[in-house]
Structures are given as C-alpha cells and as structure tokens.
Write a structure and sequence with these properties.
The chain is an alpha+beta fold and 799 residues long. The chain is built from 22 helices and 29 strands. The structure holds a DNA duplex (15 and 18 nucleotides).
DNA sequence: GCAGCCCTATTACCT
DNA sequence: ACAGGTAATAGGGCTGCG
C-alpha cells in the first residue's frame, strides 16, 4: 500500500452490479496521470417526519419496508436543521446511488413522512461534499495499484484504500497538458449541417507550442481528418481540451460527423464519446472540456462576444480586419485554391486566440472550481446562481443544515435600491464614496439569513432580533446565520489573499494564482445577495432579500443626511455610493460619523477632477486626474448603438470635459456628418448589434433586429436566444424593420446614411450637447437638400 | 393622411 | 436561470386636425 498525492482534475462515477465506484481523475505529484477508484461510499437521503410524528416510529416503518427496497444499507435517526430549525430526521443510506430517487419517492408516500430531502444530490457531488474532496485541489489517499484492463488512458489505475484527504495548504497547480482546437466546416449555402456538410479544417495548438492542422482532402470527405484528429488527441493525451463555442457547436458537430463516417469520437480517457452532462455541458471523461464562450460574460466591456473580440480585448491577439473571414465566406474561401491559404491561416489564428484566451481565464476557472466545489468542466457552464448554490451547499453540510429542494415559485417583485437624481451639468472636484461590499456587510451586520428569519407568526427569541426598516422583517441576533458565517469567511479569506498579494511580484506565478483566487471569492461574495432574492434558489425567502435592500436604503439615506449636516453637497448617488464635492476635512468627519452611526465602512473610491451629468440617472462621464474618462451608462458604453454614434459621443465628451469647448465639439459633429454622407466612414461603424433574447417566433412585435434575424434564418442560419444580430438600415420606404438587413447581406451603397445621422449621431451628440443649449439644427452641416425631398416623394408612392 | 400623444415591448445598462 | 432601478428606442393605437 502506498500513499498517493494527487490534484483532482475530473470526477465521474459508475455503478456495476449495484456497487458504486467513484472515479477520481488526477495528476500526482510526480506528474503522472492517475485514476483513483474509490468503492464503498454509500450515498443517502433523508426522510423528514411530519411534525406530530415520532422519528423512532417512522424509522421503524421504513425498516419494515426494507424487503422491498433491497439496497438500503443503513437507517438511523440524526439531528439536522432545516432553515435553522433543529429537527430529528431519518438518514437512509443506499448502496446503489441511482436507486435513490425511486426509493425516496416511495418513502415520501409513507404515512407520517412529510417529505424526503437530499435525494436530488448527484452521487459524485455527494461524495465530494461529505468527504471534503475539492476539485482543482490536492489530496492524499492510501492506494493499491490495480490492473488496467479497460484501456484506460492513464499512467496508473489505483484503488483507494482510504478516503482521500484534502490538503488545503497546497495551492500550486500541476503542469497541465492543454489542447486548443477550432474547426471549419464547409457548406456551399447557409449554415453548415453536420448531417450533410463535412469538417474541412481542424487546427490545434498545445500549450507546448505544437501546432497542427488537419485538412480534408476533398470537399466531400472528412473521415481521414477526423480520425487523424482523434489519434492526435490520443497521442498528446491532454488534460484540458479547450475551444470556443465547443459545447454548442464543435463537439456535437464532430460527434455527428464521426458517426456519419463510421467512426467514434473517442477522445476521452475511457475510449468513448463526449456526452452531454449537467448544465448543458459536454463531458469528456478523464479530461476537462472547457468552452471559453462560457467565460465571455467575465468581460462585460466586450459587447459582441466573438473569439476575436475577446482575444483583442485581452491583448492576446489582434486579427486584422483583412484576415478576418466571416462564416458566410468560408465556402468561397475553401473552394478557391488561392483563397484557401488565407482560410487555413484564419483557422490557425482562431486557435491561437483560443490558447491566448485560455491563458487569461484558466487560473480563474481553476480557482472558482476549487472555491465552489464544482468540477472544472462544469463550473463554466453553471450559471452564477448555481455557482453560489453549490458553494452554499458545501457549507450547509458542514453546519448540519439540510439542503432544501428546488421548488417552482411565483415571482413577486420587491423594492430595491435608491438612485438619486443627479444635478445636471459639469461639476469640478467630485469625490465618490462607496460602501465596501454593502449588501454582504449588511447581511453580516444584521444576521440576515434564511435560517435566522423569524416569520410574522413566531414570537421574538430570548436573544433578541434585528428589525429591518420599512419592511419590519425580523432576524434573530443569535446564533450566527448561514449567510453571516459564509460571508464573513469569504471576506476574511479575500482580505488574507489580498494581503499576500501585496508581498508578491505581479509577474510571479503565485501572484497570478492568488489574484485569480481573490477574484473568485469576490464573485461569490457579491452574488450572494442576488442569490437570496432569486426565486429559483433553494434557500429563497423573499423577506431575506427584501430586508437587505431595506437596510441598504436606510444606510444610504442616512449617509446623505449626515453628509448634508456636514454641509457636504451631494451631487448624485446610486445604491451604495454618493458623489460629493471633495473636501478632505469634512469627508474625514463623514467617515467617522458613518462608522459610528451605521456600523458599516465607507471608503473613497475616486475623485473626478470634472464630471458631467445629464438629467438622467445612471448616465455620466467623469474626468480622472490622469486624463482618462470614465463613461457610465451613456451610448459610448452601450453595445446597441452604431459605432458612429459612440465614437462621436466619446469625442464630444473628451472635448467638452478636457478642453471645455462646445464650439469645437459642434464642429466635429458637423464634419463627421459630412464625411458620413460622403461615404467616407467604414461599413463596420454602421452595424448595430442587438441580442435575440428569445426564439424568433416568440416576438410579439416587429423590430429591426428581429426582422434581420428572420432574414438570416431564411438563408439557413440557425439562430437561438442569446445570439447577437448585426444589422444595418438600408434605403427605402416604410418602417425601420422593413429596412433592416443583416450586415453580411447588405452592401455599403444601400445604406441609409440619413438614418444614421438623425437616429444615431444626432441623439448621441445631443445627449451631451443639449446641456449647453445646442439644438439639432446646430449640428446639421446644411439643410436637407432637394434630392432628399425627391427621395421622400418616391418613398411615399411606393407604398 | 399624419403629427402628436401615450403605452408597451424590448434591450442594455448601473450598482 | 443572481437582484431591482433606470434610460432609451421603435412600433402601434388612438385622437384630432380642417
């Protein structure tokens, strides 16, 4: 028997003859790939006795059923809590985890059983939670070497002789083998269909720097390139396979293509195909399949989430416009022998982007996986709510809290934060003060939690209660709730990591790792309030979320009062921030008063040397002392305005705030409009991007982006909710939606420049300039000319 | 027939 | 498929003008 120290990459389970096996895929401290098989962990669920029933008699009843439930191995009464309330419940162990749902259903029908709980926890998660086994983290386990009869692709198959023990202090990540890939499919018309259109190019790059390209010999056959690709994966034996959009496109496509060719896409470590797993993710057993698209939301500044845009944003790689090839042009580029080389190059560049973006994301993904406890290949596809929930589940287990079932609930809105009306115009020397993690700290300060909430019918507990302002929800002061425990640990952990960071060089590997760690902690901390108010949450209790925002409003309102009492002028505020004239002495007093009276910490965030507010809330632009502009909410930062409007507005803000001249800004707009009308502005700057938020058929109204989407669909493009539609407005008569065309279908000459002038440039420009009395007619370089009236005339007669 | 108003649907933002 | 608060546009229905 030996000890094996391993880093957990992936986990799955098998049930053979009703005997469960957990398969832990790891990398040991000698860099060997190992599979550790752990047998004999029996999962379980709970039966909750009805309130008037004795747990003993229920347990007895269940014991008498055992003959019809043969794989139950243990029944006992244990102490647990449900929403903070102590309970005696019956824990029922079952040897075969796959039978648990069925058994729980039968037992929940027993007289005197209120319900069953935790029968909905997957076996592999159950195993990790109960044994404190953490993905992307080191463990130690006693093992014996096993035969490897099943052609499993690892250096060693080991049988666990003990439960693995987590080694929380080891934080480094072993050297992983990473393979990035992207594919190009050939379809003469419309979007490629795996049933008929072949894969013609597969480009791969490994983190050893090895580049490969697999190219189809003809435009019809792809059996060779697919089998070569499979063999290459087998020989490189990656730990991580990464691509962009692979869960939705590449992997399902390749799987079908392989089948069509009589092949199996056996690219995992057990010689079988990728398979769909939880959260719509595709699992490749023994490896971690990562789809970078699942991390695109980490970059809110990137509005159109293409691989090229993200790579460009991260400074990984810039694909020049002349080398960028649109999907629509793949076929032409493939068919034409001269152009094929550029397509090959483009494909490889795509894979270079993939490798580069992986560099930027992987540390974060690994840290998030180990913090939350979801395996590396699941963490990306899990929505924020589920990430928070799995994190909470682990802590619930440690606190003896039962995990509530997911139930369907009716949505009832509740009041949120306060936003102040800004004082329009330009202000000088404005400080922004922020409450530090306001909602988490409110939850800690007032012990707001699902397990401390006291429903209206219940009396006050002896330890006393906190009562939320306005809404009057009560929370017991003692003991500390679930959220307080979890959040204070998170905040503490993050502070500790940040302290360590200060002592490290930003270039060191430790720094990168710890920085990713503190980001992961931050994400989970900040999402906890949102989780609390989410009707899909297992621990949803509306008053919990409602109380948090009530205390938030109370806090900010009092802050404003205190500021005013110190004769500090409040210019604006939103949720947890106030914008005030910078006055160091008074602000110091304000900090003290707030900490004393409100028990929460406020800190200076930044100082704007100048800041511009419009009449609207949530939209402003501040000039920082170093000359940078902070644009918030305005068209400049929105993804659904044409670039022409955004660029102009940005320029106006710069001129107005830095040079403080309106005249120059007006001239700039006029000049720009002249250039636009003269067709001197690039086509790309005229594209408007909007997201499809639901299937096309479900739209009640006709809108430009929806109609453009319909046109794409007609040409064979498969569109789903979440896709971004890029369209332009073309000349002609009628409603905008009749003139909107997908940008890949339209030509520059059919663009309706006057639309861009009146509905994009002018509104974006006036948003700022109207503050200074500038009117529409001041921005137009000349009055509408004759041809325009003629155009209108023709338009009217067409209809 | 159409300008003007109001309302709704839709999207993307802020914290 | 984490929350509510907010701005903005386009479409569509309705009114009233002459």
């Amino acid at each position: 028997m030996t000890t094996c120290r391993f880093w957990l990459l992936d986990i799955n389970y098998e049930v053979k003859n009703h005997q469960p096996e957990v398969w832990l895929w790891g990398i040991d401290n000698n860099g060997r790939r190992v599979l550790i098989i752990d047998r004999g962990f029996h999962a379980y669920f709970y039966a909750i006795p009805a309130s008037n029933e004795k747990p003993e008699s229920i347990a007895e009843k269940i014991k008498q059923m055992v003959s019809s439930l043969p794989f139950i191995t243990n029944i006992k009464i244990v102490d647990r809590k449900l929403f903070g309330k102590p309970l005696k419940v019956i824990k029922i162990n079952c040897q075969d985890p796959d039978l648990i749902p069925e058994y729980a259903k039968k037992i929940s029908r027993l007289d005197g059983v209120e319900k069953c709980l935790e029968d909905d926890i997957r076996y592999s998660m159950r195993y990790m939670i109960d044994n404190n086994i953490v993905p992307c983290s080191w463990h130690e386990v006693e093992v014996e070497e096993e035969q490897n009869p099943e052609r499993i692709q690892v250096d060693k198959v080991l049988l666990a002789k003990s439960r693995p023990k987590h080694l929380p202090k080891l934080i480094e990540v072993p050297k992983l083998r990473i393979l990035g890939f992207s594919i190009i499919c050939y379809s003469p018309k419309g979007a490629p269909k795996p049933e008929k259109n072949p894969v013609v190019i597969i480009s791969t790059i490994t983190n050893n720097g090895e580049k490969r390209q697999f190219i189809a010999e003809t435009s019809e056959k792809d059996d060779k390139i697919i089998s070569k690709f499979i063999n290459y994966i087998k020989s490189f034996d990656p730990d991580i396979i990464v691509g962009y959009g692979t869960n939705r496109n590449d992997l399902p496509y390749l799987t079908v293509r392989a089948k069509r060719n009589g092949l199996t896409l056996n690219i995992d470590r057990v010689n079988s195909e990728p398979h769909t797993s939880v959260y719509g993710h595709i699992s490749i057993t023994g490896r971690a399949n990562i789809d970078l698209y699942d991390y695109a939301d980490e970059f809110p500044d990137v509005k159109v989430k293409t691989l090229e845009n993200i790579a460009d944003y991260l400074g990984v790689k810039k694909i020049e416009e002349r080398t960028l090839i649109e999907d629509i042009d793949f076929a032409e580029n493939w068919e034409n022998p001269q152009k094929r080389a550029t397509l090959l190059k483009f494909s490889m560049e795509n894979t270079e982007c993939i490798i580069g973006v992986t560099e930027a994301i992987l540390d974060f993904a690994i840290q998030l996986s180990s913090l939350v406890g979801l395996p590396l290949d699941h963490i990306g596809t899990a929505a924020v709510g589920f990430r928070v929930e799995w994190f909470l589940i682990r802590h619930a287990y440690q606190m003896g809290e039962l995990i509530p079932k997911r139930v369907e609930r009716r949505y009832i809105p509740y009041a949120g934060a306060i936003v102040l009306k800004p004082k329009p115009g330009i202000h000088e020397n404005i400080a922004v003060l922020d409450f530090k993690s306001m909602y988490p700290n409110i939850m800690i300060a007032y012990n707001v939690s699902p397990d401390t909430y006291i429903p209206p019918e219940e009396p006050n507990p002896p330890s006393g209660v906190y009562i939320a302002p306005e809404v009057n929800h009560r929370f017991r002061k003692e003991p500390s709730g679930f959220y307080r425990e979890v959040l204070s640990k998170l905040i503490e952990a993050r502070d500790k990591v940040r302290a360590q960071l200060k002592r490290l060089s930003p270039k060191s590997p430790e720094y990168r790792l710890l920085d990713a760690r503190q980001k992961a902690i931050k994400v989970i901390t900040n999402a906890t309030y949102g989780y609390a108010g989410w009707i899909g949450a297992r621990w949803y209790i509306k008053p919990v979320a409602e109380a948090v925002t009530a205390w938030g409003r109370h806090t900010i309102t009092n802050t404003i009062k205190i500021a005013k009492s110190l004769s500090l002028e409040v210019i604006y505020g939103d949720t947890d921030s106030i914008f005030i004239r910078y006055d160091p002495k008074k602000i110091e007093k304000l900090f003290k008063a707030i900490e004393e009276k409100l028990g929460l910490e406020i800190k200076p965030d930044k100082i704007y040397s100048r800041i511009l507010f419009t009449e609207a809330k949530k939209r402003y632009c501040g000039l920082l002392p170093d000359g940078r502009l902070d644009t918030v909410g305005l068209e400049v930062v929105r993804g659904d305005w044409a670039n022409v409007a955004k660029k102009i507005q940005e320029k106006i803000l710069e001129v107005v705030l830095k040079e403080q001249t309106v005249r120059k800004a007006v001239e700039y707009v006029q000049e720009y409009i002249i250039n636009l009308r003269a067709k001197k502005i690039p086509y790309r700057d005229l594209i408007i991007w909007k997201t499809l938020t639901k299937p096309i058929e479900e739209y009640e109204v006709r809108a430009p982006h929806v109609e453009a989407a319909r046109l794409l669909q007609k040409e064979g493009w498969a569109l789903t909710a979440g896709d971004k539609i890029g369209y332009v407005i073309t000349l002609g008569s009628g409603k905008l939606y009749e003139r909107a065309k997908p940008y890949i279908f339209a030509s520059y000459d059919e663009i309706d420049m006057e639309y861009y002038v009146t509905k994009q440039i002018i509104p974006a420009a006036l948003r700022i300039l109207s503050l200074f009395g500038v009117r529409k007619q001041d921005l137009l370089p000349s009055k509408p000319t004759k041809p325009q009236t003629l155009l209108k005339f023709f338009g009217e007669n067409k209809k």
